[in-house]
Amino acid sequence: MAVYALTGFSLVSLLSFGYLSWDWMKPSLVADVATDPMEKSLPPAFARPPHIIFILTDDQGYHDVGYHGSDIQTPTLDRLAAEGVKLENYYIQPICTPSRSQLITGRYQIHTGLQHSIIRPRQPNCLPLDQVTLPQKLQEAGYSTHMVGKWHLGFYKKECLPTRRGFDTFLGSLTGNVDYYTYDNCDGPGVCGYDLHEGEDVAWDQSGKYSTFLYAQRVSKILASHSPKEPIFIYVAFQAVHTPLQSPKEYIYRYRSMGNVARRKYAAMVTCMDEAVKNITWALKKYGYYDNSVIVFSTDNGGQTFSGGSNWPLRGRKGTYWEGGVRGIGFVHSPLIKRKRRTSWALVHITDWYPTLVSLARGNLSNVPGLDGYNVWPAISEGKESPRTEILHNIDPLYNHAKYGSLEDGFGIWNTAVQASIRVGEWKLLTGDPGYSDWIPPQTLTNFPGSWWNLERLTDGLRKSVWLFNITADPYERYDLSDQRPDVVRTLLMRLVHYNRTAIPVRYPAENPRAHPDFNGGAWGPWASEDDGEEWEDGREPVKNRNKKKKCKICKLRSFFRKLNTRLMSNRI
Q1: What angle do CA 540, 541, 546 make, to 5 degrees?
Q2: Distance CA 316, CA 63 (A)
Q3: 271-298 pLDDT tens trace
């Protein structure tokens, strides 16, 4: 195996010193805090439905929290996690839209048609309108529902907006990433627009305010204006710490000793977000919500290692199905937890929050059959066994097929060229191209070299399309057991076949020129009328509209806007 030098140490030396052993979780970092046997605890069944605060961060790496041994300061997250329940067997999705869709629907993305990539700004696509969302179920249970932050579940029609999907109020962005101060977002050269919205209107007056601060202040304002006697649900989807790497200077100064500039800016953003969570927690206490509240903290996917993030010691990064892409930071903090101050190894997936939170709210789940999530509150609060035994990470038939995959390699039951991943018990199977395969230490060095990052891909990744790992024994995915345990491979392939039979067609339509912000007053926002049909596609080509007259009109309109857009682009050039 080739070994590349790394400024005085190598991958082999890192392995030999134990950086990739399970012992990296030092007791001082993640061990349970002993519970005082005399502690008054264990509240009875909730006297009334709890207030629910769900905090989702964007692109925060698995390593990038203090209690995972990070060099980044997160005192608030560390304290909340230590006093609550840390979820150390918690899984999310590898990119933004899939995690958010599964959180808000309780369903795997194969069951919503969003199994490929993300929803892009110019696509006539959004979370399927027939899905009953988490906030809608909470509204039914008598909750006031509010969203602050990043939506990224589509907006081409007004029916797709957060305020039409169950939220009473909304302040945030609709697209995937915006400038933290100006709220501008460019979806390609010359396709730029403003993206900060208050309800269904463009919030031009908020430009210039750093989004992390703005969102925390909005949460405090919501709490101040609401009565703690009435249940409230606030979904706080921070933009942080997604690119662009922007932070107030005073936070960057704290990390001036970090040689890697991207890591320095990223660390500043994480600490800034941590303080925003502190302010939200303080507001819960100040306005009388805290004693009857449940705070859930979750990341949305793995960290992007080329933008300062770190998933060390896990393998992979954002956008991959290696553990570094799908294992998330998660914890629950609440005075209502019966067994606090501990670490849980119960298997939990982001789809589980839907039934868990609706159950806590005393809502009705009988009219939403077919959920993929489970109620995991007994596992979190009481330490009981998780009802979940497996996770379908995804099946993406549109992702580039692996060059060396075949139906033959899949025992004649599964084409291993297809990108897919599943966890069953302690076993994890990956087929197709799982994404960039690497172990990357925190990038604290100046000009951190990247030649050895490809080590796994260079040595055994090029001619493979099947991997099998015992995640319990090998959480860092170092030892591929697919050749030694073909029986397990076959069993897990059969589970993929089972899930694939339940999948609905992929919804990934072609971009529409009408989405250009220039046609919407310079801002991103809905562009299709309520009468426009849904133009989904099954595969890569647009589905033909059944109404021929309507189709003809749309085609002419598209042609007009395409020519107009070309002229506008020519003038800019």
Answers
A1: 140
A2: 12
A3: 999 999 999 999 999 999 999 999 999 9
Contact 85, 342 (CB under 8 A): yes
Tokens of 164: 């039409």
Question: Do 422 and 496 meet the contact criterion of CB atoms below 8 Å apart?
Answer: yes
For the record, the structure tokens of 390 come out as 């497996």
Give 552-560's long-range contacts (Cβ < 8 A, gap of 24+): 557/514, 558/512, 558/513, 558/514
Active-site choice (68, 96, 126, 160): 96
Would you call 570 helix, strand, or coil by DSSP? helix
Q: What is the largest CA-CA distance in the chain?
A: 75
**Mean pLDDT computed over 436-447:** 70
> Catalytic one among 152, 242, 333, 516?
152
Contact indicator for 133, 141 with CB cutoff of 8 Å: no
Active site residue 152: yes
Calpha distance 347→89 (Å, rounded): 5
Q: Under a CB-based contact definition with an 8 Å cutoff, are residues 477 and 323 in contact?
A: yes
Tell me the domains of the chain and their CATH numbers. Answer: 51-388 (3.40.720.10)
pLDDT given at position 442: 78
Q: Rounded to a whole number, what is the distance in angstroms from the first to the last CA of the chain? A: 50
